[in-house]
Amino acid sequence: MTLTPHQRTVLNYIGEFQRKRGYSPSLSDLALAFGVRSKNAVAKVVNVLAREGFIEKDPKGRIKILELTENSADEQPAPLMLPLFGPISAGFAAPVEEQAEEMLTLDAYLIGNQKASTFLLRVKGDSMMEAGIYEGDIVVVDRKKTPKLNDIVVGILDGEFTLKRLKRDKGKYYLQAENPNYPDMYAMEELQTGGVVVGVMRKY
Question: What's the rounded Cα separation, in Å, for the pair 104 and 164?
Fold first, then answer.
């Protein structure tokens, strides 16, 4: 069986959890790690991994990784998992925890379970600089997330796309820049949203 990216991520997380802590993660641990409220969601993935022979569960339900042979491992590359340390002070100097808090995959952190509805946009211009979004940044957008007031959204203003903060005044929605040099933007005919910004990436 070829694992889905999410199944492969869960499998890798279980292995890293065991190697780091010396025992298996519970369903609650997995639900917390992947940001889901129901243990049933991760239980389904665990059951698939057990059924396909990637893991096994003892009589108490504890999870154990099985050694994979060359033929049993699928050809899909595993997501990159990196150790997360910290916190580190951005003010006065302070001691930093030397042990990694957890192993983190960038796609799980930035996207989670919303891959089908997520896309990236490269930013042009400086209208959102006071929100910490600069020209050349890449924003992570979830097209299915319901926009709320003060969310940064992909606004569709009379058919034109722009990245702004969603505001409302006297019952009327408008778009606000995060730069005082730009005016508020009101629709002549129609204001829609094409997604909500859920993250931003920048490479130095």
Answer: 30
